[in-house]
Design a protein that fits this description.
Helix content: 40-55%
CATH topology of the largest domain: Triger factor/SurA peptide-binding fold
Largest sheet: 4 strands, antiparallel
GO molecular function, one term: peptidyl-prolyl cis-trans isomerase activity
Catalytic activity: [protein]-peptidylproline (omega=180) = [protein]-peptidylproline (omega=0)
Structural class: alpha+beta
Number of strands: 7
Distance between the termini: 34 Å
Strand content: 5-15%
Number of helices: 11
Protein name: peptidylprolyl isomerase
Number of domains: 2
EC number: 5.2.1.8
Strand order of the largest sheet: 4-3-6-5
Keywords: Isomerase, Rotamase, Signal
């Protein structure tokens, strides 16, 4: 499934008002300035100082800002901000801000604009799901497709050893060949703190069909392995890390009943409809990068 477009808690704008702000892009005539992205970077770094300020991060934030701007504009066009429910939510939030004294802060105007943008996005999501509800027939069709896709498949409980060098990964493989336990080897060589605690074995199982789609390189390396098997050579991720993968367990996948799968499938279908609605808006939008 596609990543959510609505991680809006991370996207609240804190526009600094710098005289050096420059327009990055216009969205249906509305400007997105560099100071908006500056503010979002500061928010992320205040929550996690390990996040580096990079062109890739700024590009991602700009793309998300474009999406949420387009959605907010559509919500206004549909007059969703005129509903009694929306007005009450805004009034309650304004009253809470006033009570806490937040409305006296220097950045309140910018923070409030971000909050309103978030509320408009939520209103559009609710409108999309209300006007395009998931029917029982939709759910049954999705279940039949789900059942057909996973029928006869297998799932595995993977162990992994992550190292910073090929030589360490090869030493780990040599120790496995020498019949040392995977837990012992993972504890010795893996740089992942969690792996050192759990012996390198993930608690959850992953279906091989999901692994084939989501991590084809790992799938190709382990698909023929049975329980107790491990990759004979290290896998490199392209970022200087090397992995050794181990099959702690392998079993036939159990297909859940329709009733058991129903809620999860419903959530997935709702997410897909939201994504489709957003994609339609983006295709129609007049998005112009700054010169």
């Amino acid at each position: 499934m596609k990543k959510s477009y609505f991680a809006l808690a991370l996207l609240t704008t804190l526009i600094s008002g710098s005289l050096w702000a420059k327009t990055l892009v216009t969205v249906n005539g509305a400007k997105i300035d560099s100071t908006e992205i500056d503010g979002q970077v500061k928010i992320l770094q205040s929550q996690n100082p390990q996040i580096p300020d990079s062109p890739a991060l700024r590009q991602e934030l700009t793309e998300r800002q474009i999406m949420t701007t387009v959605v907010a504009q559509e919500a206004k066009r549909l007059k969703l901000d005129q509903s009694a429910e929306y007005k009450k939510a805004i009034a309650d939030a304004r009253a809470a801000a006033k009570k806490d004294g937040a409305d006296k802060q220097a950045t309140f105007k910018q923070q409030w604009a971000g909050f309103e943008n978030e509320m408009l996005n939520r209103a559009f999501i609710a409108h999309t799901l209300r006007t395009n509800p998931i029917s029982e027939k939709d759910l049954q069709t999705a279940y039949n497709d789900f059942k057909k896709f996973y029928q006869g498949s297998y799932e595995v409980q993977l162990g992994e050893i992550i190292t910073r060098s090929r030589s360490d990964a090869e030493k780990a493989i040599a120790d496995l060949k020498a019949k040392k336990s995977f837990k012992t080897v993972a504890t010795q060589y893996s740089i992942d703190p969690e792996s050192k605690q759990n012996g390198g074995v993930n608690e959850d199982y992953v279906n091989l069909k999901d692994l084939e789609q989501g991590a084809p390189v790992i799938y190709a390396a382990i698909r023929q392995l049975n329980k107790g098997g491990y990759t004979a050579s290290p896998l490199e991720d392209g970022n200087g890390l090397f992995g050794v993968f181990y099959i702690n367990d392998k079993r036939a996948a159990k297909i859940p009943s329709y009733e058991a799968a129903k809620n999860g499938l419903g959530n997935q279908l709702q997410a897909e409809r939201i994504d489709q609605a957003v994609e339609t808006l983006l295709r129609k939008a007049d998005i112009k990068p700054a010169n």
